[in-house]
Specification:
Blueprint: E1 2-10, H1 16-29, E2 32-37, E3 54-60, H2 66-77, E4 81-85, H3 86-90, H4 97-103, E5 105-109, E6 116-122, E7 136-140, E8 144-147, E9 152-159, E10 172-182, E11 185-190, H5 198-201, H6 203-226, H7 231-235
Parallel strand pairs: 1-2, 1-3, 3-4, 4-11
Antiparallel strand pairs: 5-8, 6-7, 6-9, 9-10, 10-11
């Protein structure tokens, strides 16, 4: 049976308990054993992530100990998947640049706040995660992020939508969902999920999250089959 772990916490406004319960239910429906923690103290023992297929983060802002961040970074590099949504992953641990490097982006603003109506544009054919999905509308926070140019973009939204300081710039298509790799591990993120009910409001938002988690978790099996060497990711071996 595949193993998943969820860390829930940080700012309560993002409903980490509710989103964690939803994601745990989706994973269990897909045959995972899933454990939810409301503290990161289990990371005091690096072995807690050994053999784990997937880590889902639902932890907005807050701080992370350097040793905990390194434990996660090494586990993902060794093949564990990492997935999350909204501020629960890409507005976690603002002071930890390594976290931002691994996840692929960092929230910087949501012009108009909550209740902005905007379109999510699916990039067809970009990934099995988006197969069969079409553009859809949500009413929530529209995330403006600073993103890693290496990400594989699965969906975007157009800015500006409301009047804010950024309107004097040209229109931009901001990533809403993406994948990337970290060592041998797979990373998935979607900016949807300000409140748990956005996944009921737009069923395709939940499909994205569910498929993204499953995609990220596949990395462990593929890494095991390939017998990939993870040492070079830990030592900073120069390529080329």
């Amino acid at each position: 049976m595949k193993q998943a772990i969820i860390f829930q916490g940080g700012w309560d406004g993002h409903e980490p308990v509710q989103t964690s319960a939803r994601f745990a239910s989706l994973l269990r429906k897909n045959g995972f054993s899933c454990t939810v923690y409301d503290t990161m103290d289990p990371l005091d023992d690096p072995a807690v992530l050994e053999g784990m297929d997937l880590l889902v983060m639902c932890w907005t802002m807050g701080q992370i100990k350097d040793e905990h961040a390194q434990t996660i970074c090494r586990a993902v590099a060794a093949g564990m998947g990492l997935a999350g949504c909204h501020g629960g992953m890409c507005d976690a641990f603002r002071a930890c640049t390594e976290w931002q490097f691994m996840t692929g982006g960092q929230w910087v603003s949501h012009p108009g706040g909550d209740g902005v109506e905007y379109m999510v544009h699916i990039h067809p054919g970009s990934s099995p995660i988006t197969q069969g999905l079409t553009d859809f509308k949500v009413c929530s926070e529209q995330y403006y992020l600073h993103v890693d140019p290496a990400i594989e973009v699965l969906a975007t939204t157009r800015f500006p939508t409301v009047a804010d300081y950024n309107i004097t710039n040209k229109p931009v298509d901001m990533p809403v969902a993406w994948t990337k790799f970290w060592g041998n591990g797979r990373v998935f993120y979607t900016s949807l999920g300000h409140h748990d009910d956005v996944f009921d409001q737009a069923s395709q938002a939940q499909v994205l999250m569910e498929r993204g988690m499953l995609w990220a978790a596949q990395g462990r099996a593929l890494e095991t089959q390939a017998g990939a060497d993870t040492k070079r990711f830990e030592t900073g071996e120069r390529l080329g």
